[in-house]
Design goal:
Helix content is about 40%, strand content about 15%. By secondary structure, it is of the alpha/beta class. It has nine helices and seven strands. A five-stranded parallel beta sheet has the order 5-4-3-6-7, sandwiched between helices. It has a two-stranded antiparallel ribbon with strand order 1-2. The chain has a single domain, classed as Rossmann fold. Bound molecules: 2-acetamido-2-deoxy-beta-D-glucopyranose (3 copies) and magnesium ion. The site of magnesium ion (MG) has 7 residues, from loops. It comes from Quillaja saponaria (Soap bark tree). InterPro entries: Acid_phosphat_B-like (IPR005519), Acid_phosphatase_pln (IPR010028), APS1/VSP (IPR014403), HAD-like_sf (IPR036412), HAD_sf (IPR023214). May function as somatic storage protein during early seedling development. Belongs to the APS1/VSP family.
């Protein structure tokens, strides 16, 4: 028997389903989308995966090695669905609104630091093939993927990059990739649409064994010593952003796939 309330719920469900379907027109898709947003927070006994992800993004959960097994599907749906892109868009939009609101003197010394992996370029095609957290990180197969130089841009970051350049802010790429991957990184950046940069800093052997925070903040300090002004700094890891000097403002992109300390 159809009660008025049942009919209403039924209609509401239809509307929700329609809204979800129409939300899949994401431009510049970086990987085939999965038909789930990943934003629902599949509640499993003892842990909500969306709470785990919030804990990770807020840097309350640190030094983790693997995505909790129960949350692998959740993270996969999040990364390949629309929520990751929407979250990235908020970060990039806020970054541009901030930069655009500054009254910068265009003396050629204003720079913006971009991390590369999961910031400038996306390794989502690799992780989609190898699974989200099912196995420990395999440096050999990951480096094989990097050496192909085919990583697409994270579209939200590419848009931010172009808009910052139009404000006269120069890009500095500061990456944990090592010097022997310079050539392929240059090729990949250009292929993905990044054509101008002030510097591309890769990790040399003097930093081997040092933390990412030490490596990256040391280079930021050197850049300031040379007279550059770090207007902003964007990365997917907290280790891209912590350690002085940080830059005038920092912007954290989502990354529930891995943790680099
Ligand atoms: C921007 O800076 C210039 C010189 O530094 C100043 O003359 C101008 O009034 C400033 N504009 C705003 C909107 O603050
Ligand atoms: C890591 O990847 C390489 C290259 O694909 C493969 O030969 C190797 O077996 C992998 N190692 C593990 C532990 O899975
Ligand atoms: C950046 O921070 C420095 C040091 O606090 C400050 O002097 C400078 O005005 C800031 N620049 C901008 C663009 O906010
Ligand atoms: Mg990164």
């Amino acid at each position: 028997m159809w009660q008025p309330c049942t009919v209403l719920i039924f209609l509401a469900t239809l509307i929700v389903v329609n809204c979800q379907n129409s939300a899949f027109d994401i431009t510049n898709q970086i990987h085939l989308l999965r038909p789930k947003s990943g934003s629902g927070g599949d509640l499993i006994p003892g842990i909500s995966c969306s709470s785990w992800r919030l804990g990770v993004e807020a840097h309350n959960i640190i030094d983790w090695k693997l995505i909790p097994t129960e949350c692998e599907d959740y993270v996969g749906h999040y990364m390949l669905g629309k929520q990751y892109r929407e979250d990235s868009k908020v970060v990039a939009s806020e970054a541009f609104a901030y930069a655009n609101g500054l009254n910068l003197t265009n003396d050629g010394n204003n720079i913006w630091i971009f991390d590369i992996d999961e910031t400038t370029l996306s390794n989502l095609p690799y992780y989609a093939d190898h699974g989200f957290g099912a196995e420990l990180f395999n440096a050999t197969s990951f480096n094989e993927w990097v050496d192909r130089g085919e990583a697409p841009a994270l579209p939200e970051s590419l848009e931010l990059y172009n808009k910052l350049l139009s404000l006269g802010i120069k890009a500095v790429f500061l990456t944990g990739r090592e010097e022997d991957q310079r050539e392929v990184t240059v090729k990949n950046l250009k292929q993905a649409g990044y054509n101008n940069w002030e510097k591309l800093i890769l990790k040399d052997s003097s930093f081997s064994g040092k933390t990412a925070v030490f490596y990256k903040s040391s280079h930021r300090r050197n850049l300031e010593k040379k007279g550059y002004k770090i207007i902003g700094n964007i990365g997917d890891q907290w280790s891209d952003l912590l350690g002085t000097p940080t830059g005038n403002r920092t912007f954290k992109l989502p990354d529930p796939m891995y943790y680099i300390g």
